[in-house]
Amino acid sequence: MKNCAIVGTQWGDEGKGKIVHFLAEKADVIVRYQGGNNAGHTIIFDGKKFVCHLIPSGILEKSKICLIGNGVVFDPLEFIKELEELEEAGYDCQGRLWVSDCAHTILPYHRLLDAAKELKSKNKIGTTKKGIGPAYTDKAARQGIRLAEYIDDEAFEKLLSANLENKKEELGCDIDKLKNEILAGRNKIVGRLRNFVADTSILLAQNIKDGKSVVFESAQGTMLDVDHGTYPYVTSSNPVSGAASCGSGIGPGAIQEVIGIAKAYTTRVGEGPFPTELDDEIGEKMQNIGGEFGATTGRPRRCGWFDAVVVKTAARLNSLTGIALTKIDVLDSFEKIKVCVGYKYRGKMLTAMPANRYAYQELKPEYIEVDGWMSDTSQITAYDNLPMKAKDYIAKLEKLCDTPVSIVSVGPDRKATIVRDL
Ligand code: GDP
Ligand code: IMO
Ligand code: MG
Fold it and tell me: N or C terminus: which one in the chain shows less Cβ crowding within 10 Å?
């Protein structure tokens, strides 16, 4: 199998976890390269369900090596929780799961600052309150504490004291008490954590040299990318494929394929523009059939038609070599299906999202409408057996997004995956 990056093409929750787990069967190494435990990647197989937040979705393939790269913001307490859940379920991780010593840590004060900002701000982002933004802010401001320092008693205490002193006013709480709580929490887990810390860049390079194949796993989606997404309603990192190399510590030549995961419709959690959003019974129907509730926060996901402007943009930004189209089964009972092909804005037709945030509210989606297939696709295992109208829909999306659909997903279970022979 070629080394392959898996990216979300919309606003997240496209089914990355399912597809990474599916592809992990044939790969040797799975590496997460950005984001943190704001992600919620659902994996369903053999009647079991798991949600991975920080640990790569490949971990459920028992013989695979999983890496958490330097581009990830890493909450040590949450990591240990997730690790223990996996171990309880029979997944031994020691010796095959490694976290970059360069990954920046998310500390309890990052979570406090994230939540406080959301509470106070007039223009809410609707973050997951996991401390992602404040941790990346510290990283860019050169005030972060990396994992290598977190596991070093002396270095950590020194850096923590300095950071808390800096943030005293912003935090507005008893700094000494907070410091003691942070140290106590850390001391409980740090012995365990040390077994998982490594230079993951060297490990990755060695594996590639040995001819092993790698899946690069993104979190979030292209429209949540801090550079290319619907700023400021974005996350604080780069989910696009270009960041896979930087965030895992390997050159871009190591990535040979890029698969974009796209839902057959669109969803979004949190605030921000969503031109094809359906605030009516059709959107409600998508939400109910698709089970569209956040895997991390449980919030209902906003739903709407497939936006080809968004996915075509994602194809360009990520150099997609293929699309994995997920959840087409959710559209099985829709008589008519719409696809957005452009936005009307002040009398002009736009074929990309504008950069000026004040234009977002004025975008009016332009649709084409196709017939639905009105039959159950969830048991279909071969592309040729899909209803003709479903194949027409897929062909239309391929054309509009300028990318072949190489995988079709017809249900949440790993088995409900059709790989196309293109
Ligand atoms: P991720 O964050 O991109 O990994 O996606 P999530 O796990 O947050 O959300 C995707 C949801 O859709 C999960 O509940 C999956 O189990 C489910 N899912 C994935 N693929 C399919 C599919 O083809 N059909 C249906 N019905 N559900 C799917
Ligand atoms: P996966 O990997 C969907 C959204 C939040 C919010 C914005 C910023 O499961 O696709 P943050 O906590 O990152 O600072 O929040 O980004 N968001 C996601 N939406 N899926 C995700 O992850 C998300 N991770 C963050 O809802 O709007
Ligand atoms: Mg998710």
Answer: C
CA–CA dist 413, 3 (Å, integer)? 24
Give the distance between the most distant pair of CA atoms in the chain: 66
User: Mind giving me the DSSP string for 271-320?
Assistant: SS--TTB--SHHHHHHHHHHT-B-TTT-PBPEEE-EEHHHHHHHHHHHT-
Q: How far is the CA of 173 from the centre of ligand 3 (A)?
A: 33
pLDDT score of 75: 98
Ligand 1 within 6 A of CB of 410: yes
Residue whose CA lies nearest to ligand 2 atom number 11: 127
Tell me the backbone φ, ψ of residue 131, rounded to 5 degrees: 90, 15
The reply to whether omega before 134 is within 30° of 0 (cis) is: no
Active site residue 371: no
At residue 303, the pLDDT reads: 98
Give CA torsion, residues 26, 32, 33, 38, to 10 deg.
140
Give the C-alpha distances (Å, rounded to integers) separating 28 from 2, 62, 217, 253. 11, 11, 13, 18
What is residue 346's predicted lDDT score, i.e. its pLDDT? 97
- Going from the C-alpha of 305 to that of each of 5, 21, 58, 345, 355, the distances in angstroms are 26, 26, 30, 19, 22
* pLDDT given for residue 97 in this prediction: 98
Give the model's pLDDT for residue 122: 84
Q: Which residue's structure tokens are 């700094």?
A: 175
Q: State the pLDDT at residue 392.
A: 98
Query: For the whole prediction, is pTM greater than 0.90?
Result: yes
Atom of ligand 2 at shortest range from CA of 41: 9
SS3 track for 88-148: HCCCCCCCCEEEECCCEECCHHHHHHHHHHHHHCCCCCCCCCCCHHHHHHHHHCCCCCEHH
418 to 17, 57, 319, 380: CA distances (angstroms): 16, 19, 22, 8
Cα separation, 165 vs 155, in Å, equals 16
